[in-house]
Amino acid sequence: MTAHPAPTADSPLLKTEVADGIATLTLARPQSRNSLSEAMMAALTGALADIAGNTAVRAVVLAAEGPVFSAGHDLKELQGHRDDADRGRAYFEDVLKRCSTLMTALVRLPQPVIAAVEGMATAAGCQLVASCDLAVAGAQARFCTPGVNIGLFCHTPMVALSRNVSRKHAMEMLLLGAWVEAEDALRMGLVNRVVEKGSAVAAATALAHRIAEKSQVPVKLGKAAFHAQIEMGLDEAYAYASRVMTENMLARDAEEGMSAVLAKRAPSWEDR
């Protein structure tokens, strides 16, 4: 088993930068294909927890170093527990629980998250992209849920994937385990736009800045409501959305925004 150098203060697993209201999280273990090892998942989950309570952060960009955005779970870690007394059952359950916690943290984060994908995003790495609110892909980015090719259906990536693309597109990816090119990912709805190779981070950051210019009241209410209502039946969803929109209308910034429209002036946001 090949050992990868342990992360240090000078070479962290995850790099975090905050500037102009945008937090950029960069997976920084290209030598391990930015796999979602236990340590990487812990680093990402911790960073998201810190960002959630930081009102200075208005949007998040999730990027990666190297030619692979993320190769998904660290197979060496998983295989290393095959000799456990339970053949790895307890470990597998724990790892998948940690992964689910990370993915739901992205969905439940108050701030919108934009994936900036260059290179390959496979298995749980593809799940990571699908769990973000928006995604920008470099022209040579590729996506895959290849578990079926090694006897392991991508069950947990399926959850995020099936909530982003149509059922038949999701099933095609899951059953074939074949590569999906950037333009096809755009057509399927897995990503929002495709840009020149090497410019995904810049394009994602530009989107983040556009979001950051808005009042954070509707952005945060809207993100939470979107993910809540999409799991509901039609009548329940309309009732829920009406309640949330009423609260939004009572916010100071909604009153200011409507007044600004009527007065034909630019609004002044206070994020309340």
Automatic annotation (TrEMBL):
<dbReference type="Pfam" id="PF00378">
    <property type="entry name" value="ECH_1"/>
</dbReference>
<comment type="function">
    <text>May play a role in fatty acid biosynthesis and insulin sensitivity.</text>
</comment>
<dbReference type="InterPro" id="IPR029045">
    <property type="entry name" value="ClpP/crotonase-like_dom_sf"/>
</dbReference>
<dbReference type="InterPro" id="IPR052377">
    <property type="entry name" value="Mitochondrial_ECH-domain"/>
</dbReference>
<keyword id="KW-0443">Lipid metabolism</keyword>
<comment type="similarity">
    <text>Belongs to the enoyl-CoA hydratase/isomerase family.</text>
</comment>
<dbReference type="InterPro" id="IPR014748">
    <property type="entry name" value="Enoyl-CoA_hydra_C"/>
</dbReference>
<protein>
    <recommendedName>
        <fullName>Enoyl-CoA hydratase domain-containing protein 3, mitochondrial</fullName>
    </recommendedName>
</protein>
<keyword id="KW-0809">Transit peptide</keyword>
<dbReference type="InterPro" id="IPR001753">
    <property type="entry name" value="Enoyl-CoA_hydra/iso"/>
</dbReference>
<keyword id="KW-0276">Fatty acid metabolism</keyword>
